Structures are given as structure tokens and as C-alpha cells.
UniProtKB/TrEMBL annotation:
Entry-linked SUPFAM superfamilies: SpoIIaa-like
Native organism: bioreactor metagenome
Protein's UniProt name: STAS domain-containing protein
Pfam families per record: STAS
InterPro entries: Anti-sigma_ant, STAS_dom, STAS_dom_sf
GO molecular function annotations of the record: anti-sigma factor antagonist activity
Length: 100
């Protein structure tokens, strides 16, 4: 997994490349720690190269969303492939996020 983060002032662009599973969850958690500690007004997760998510990854997405909501921010997910979107649909996560 590769993670790229770009802060654009009022928006943080967060790009995930590869798989988010048990083996990479720790790396993802470290990457989102500054976002969780910060202001988190608008976080955009770019998913056009995101290939797989496990339950560990879903938990971290949920943590990110809950923290953003508490701070009055939002998490937007862009360009998620159909297979991963289906996992979000089956788990009920679709209703928790904004998809573009």
C-alpha cells in the first residue's frame, strides 16, 4: 500500500494506492493520525488506485469519519471501484460517507 497526503489548506487530499488490510492497517493508522489530531474540516480520499479493503481498513475509515463528524468536518470518498463500494454497501458504511 502507498499513501499520499496533500494539504490544500481547507482540504486534505488523501490518496490510497493498493490494499488496505491487516498487514497495512498500522501504516494507514499512522498516516491518518495527524488528520485525526488536526482540524479535519474536509478530507477527500482518492480511491481510483485502491484495490482492496478488509475489516481492519473499514474500522479505520469509520474512525476517520467519526472524528471528522465530531469536529464539524466531512470525509468525501472519490472514484471508489465497484468491488470496494460493494463492501461499503454490504456493511452499511455507504450511508456514513459522501461519495463522488
Amino acid at each position: 500500500m502507498e499513501i499520499r497526503i496533500k494539504d490544500n489548506g481547507d482540504e486534505t487530499l488523501f490518496k490510497i494506492i493498493g490494499r488496505l488490510d491487516t498487514a497495512t492497517a498500522g501504516e494507514f493508522e499512522k498516516a491518518i493520525a495527524p488528520l485525526i489530531a488536526g482540524n479535519m474540516q474536509k478530507v477527500v480520499i482518492e480511491c481510483n488506485e485502491f484495490e482492496y479493503i478488509s475489516s481492519s481498513g473499514l474500522r479505520l475509515f469509520l474512525t476517520l469519519q467519526k472524528t471528522a463528524a465530531k469536529k464539524g468536518g466531512k470525509v468525501i470518498i472519490r472514484a471508489m471501484n465497484a468491488d470496494i463500494k460493494n463492501v461499503f454497501d454490504m456493511t452499511g458504511f455507504t450511508n456514513l460517507f459522501i461519495f463522488e
